[in-house]
């Protein structure tokens, strides 16, 4: 968009004052973020977010060759937005052994995956050694593969119900076993009232933030997420972003932010209409503009579908997430999107959007180990 055209678009959308602040490198406050959410001209908000994205990452957009592993869907809780959990013994409940999971990771590593992403339910009986052994076994069998595992709620579960030790001690032992990064899951929407409606009994926002704070203080990295498009209002999304920006200011430990829309089918909130395309794009754009201390915003194609995920690369996102290989959580909630993508399809989607595709690792760094694997995983020269 020509520069004069850009200012004109912002003026017409009544966000000129915000655009001037953002372009001057100033931080916007929560009131401005709320105005961006309320702005009916999504394209104008997207153009502003795109400008910030290009400033931070140029024309580069990344993707990840990774593998999802869900060790178990057996869970003590029953979050109303979740279609994944089962009670032990219920039809559809599963629990994999460390050996089975390591074999799955190994097969993906052989095909060029650089990361395994591993989460599960809050299993009432698994010993702490299971989690440690799983990480150690994958690290040993798949040299160089990065292990991103466990949500903050799983960490609290291990600490409070399984080993009765501090969060710090649990995290230190997992790090010793080889854990490279925590996942960002479990954040949902931080507001207490919203949490009470969608996931009563789950950790509070403060507890989620404390797990990540502790991990960051150990010099470690993690990602952050936001599950939107259910009972929350735009003000709750802004409050969520505010708390993340504050923790990032304190620790600098988040390497990326992954907002994704709620998938209602097969959940106790199935009456809720799924977030529309413009809402998804606007949420990504506002996140990019407001989270000025986050380097990367991920467009999560599992939630949005690849075509919309690709469009989001022009609305502030600079990452298309991963190949994944086998996604369960969104698909048990009725997602019609594919369960995996080929690396060359992600690269082609990025290229088609006018960006330069780069394969990345867990920390969003261009991953040198990906290059020798490019032929094997089918990425063009
Ligand atoms: S979202 Fe996680 S904690 Fe909640 S019911 Fe599902 S698996 Fe359990």
TrEMBL record:
Source domain of life: Bacteria
Keyword S-adenosyl-L-methionine set for record: yes
Reaction equation(s) it catalyzes: 3-[(1-carboxyvinyl)-oxy]benzoate + S-adenosyl-L-methionine + H2O = 6-amino-6-deoxyfutalosine + hydrogencarbonate + L-methionine + H(+)
InterPro entries registered for this protein in UniProt: Aldolase_TIM, CofH/MnqC-like_C, Elp3/MiaA/NifB-like_rSAM, F420, FO_synthase_su2, MqnE, rSAM, rSAM_sf
Keywords assigned: 4Fe-4S, Iron, Iron-sulfur, Menaquinone biosynthesis, Metal-binding, S-adenosyl-L-methionine, Transferase
Required co-factors: [4Fe-4S] cluster
GO BP terms, alphabetized: menaquinone biosynthetic process
Pfam families (alphabetical): CofH_C, Radical_SAM
Binding site for [4Fe-4S] cluster: 75, 79, 82
Enzyme class label: transferase
Record flagged with keyword Transmembrane: no
GO molecular function: 4 iron, 4 sulfur cluster binding; 7,8-didemethyl-8-hydroxy-5-deazariboflavin synthase activity; aminodeoxyfutalosine synthase activity; iron ion binding
EC number: 2.5.1.120
Cofactor note as given: Binds 1 [4Fe-4S] cluster. The cluster is coordinated with 3 cysteines and an exchangeable S-adenosyl-L-methionine.
Ranges in coiled-coil conformation: none
Record SMART domains: Elp3 (SM00729)
Family: Belongs to the radical SAM superfamily. MqnE family.
Name of the protein: Aminodeoxyfutalosine synthase
């Amino acid at each position: 968009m020509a520069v004069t055209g850009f200012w004109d678009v912002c003026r017409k959308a009544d966000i000129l004052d915000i655009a001037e602040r953002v372009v001057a490198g100033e931080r916007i406050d929560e009131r401005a973020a709320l105005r961006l959410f309320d702005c009916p001209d999504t394209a104008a908000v997207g153009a502003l977010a795109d400008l910030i994205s290009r400033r931070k990452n140029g024309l580069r957009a990344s993707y990840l060759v990774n593998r999802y592993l869900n060790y178990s869907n057996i869970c003590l809780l029953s979050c109303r937005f979740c279609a994944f959990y089962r009670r032990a013994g219920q039809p559809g409940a599963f629990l994999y052994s460390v050996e089975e999971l390591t074999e799955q990771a190994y097969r993906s590593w052989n095909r060029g995956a650089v990361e395994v992403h591993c989460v599960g339910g809050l299993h009432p009986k698994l010993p702490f050694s299971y989690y440690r052994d799983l990480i150690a076994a994958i690290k040993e069998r798949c040299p160089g593969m990065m292990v991103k595992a466990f949500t903050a709620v799983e960490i609290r579960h291990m600490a409070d119900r399984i080993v009765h030790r501090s969060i710090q001690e649990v995290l230190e032992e997992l790090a010793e076993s080889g854990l490279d990064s925590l996942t960002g899951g479990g954040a949902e929407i931080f507001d207490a009232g919203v949490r009470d409606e969608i996931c009563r009994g789950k950790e509070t926002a403060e507890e989620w933030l404390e797990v990540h704070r502790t991990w960051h203080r150990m010099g470690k990295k993690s990602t952050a997420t936001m599950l939107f498009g259910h009972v929350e209002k735009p003000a709750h999304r802004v409050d969520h972003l505010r708390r993340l920006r504050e923790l990032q200011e304190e620790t600098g430990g988040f390497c990326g932010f992954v907002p994704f829309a709620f998938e209602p089918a097969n959940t106790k909130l199935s009456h809720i209409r799924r977030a529309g395309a413009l809402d998804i794009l606007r949420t990504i754009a506002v996140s990019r503009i407001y989270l000025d201390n986050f380097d990367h915003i991920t467009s999560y194609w599992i939630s949005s579908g690849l075509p919309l995920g690709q469009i989001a690369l022009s609305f502030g996102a600079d990452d298309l997430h991963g190949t994944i290989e086998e996604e369960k959580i969104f698909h048990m909630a009725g997602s019609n999107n594919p369960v995996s993508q080929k690396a060359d399809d992600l690269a082609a989607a990025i290229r088609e959007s006018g960006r330069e595709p780069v394969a990345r690792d867990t920390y969003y760094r261009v991953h040198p180990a990906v290059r020798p694997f490019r032929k094997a995983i089918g990425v063009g020269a």
